[in-house]
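User: Run a structure prediction on this.
Assistant: Running it now.
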Amino acid sequence: MVTEMEFTSASFYQALRDKRLMGTRCKGCGAVYLPPRQVCFQCRSAALEWVSLTGKGKLLSFTTIAVGTNSMISQGYDRNRHYCCGIVELDEGPRVCALIVGLDTQRPDSIQIGTAVSIEFPDGEDKPSSLAFRARTGHKAS
């Protein structure tokens, strides 16, 4: 548990750069949130704490994108190299939208709902800190 960080998006993205996936957990009802929240949506408590998440989960939904944002274009994605954005349900419960890597985005029909995924941390200090998960192809989450 980490208590010295503020519950801000800047703290969340700094943790990603430090190769840690951090969420918040309500001390009252136990609800877990990613991205972190300052107030629990379940019981309205402001008594939350940082919690380290495993970064493992399963793919619930996805789309492949051929015409992306400037940020994605600068990373080499375009009409010939699509990228995948999906909803991941983490083992701890929260659902989050993120980039999904390690899939054949040219053949979206080959992508399977329920595919097991694990957090993919950015390499190097100069890489953008974005939330991404790597598909463990051939693996269905339990």
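The longest helix spans residues 9-17.
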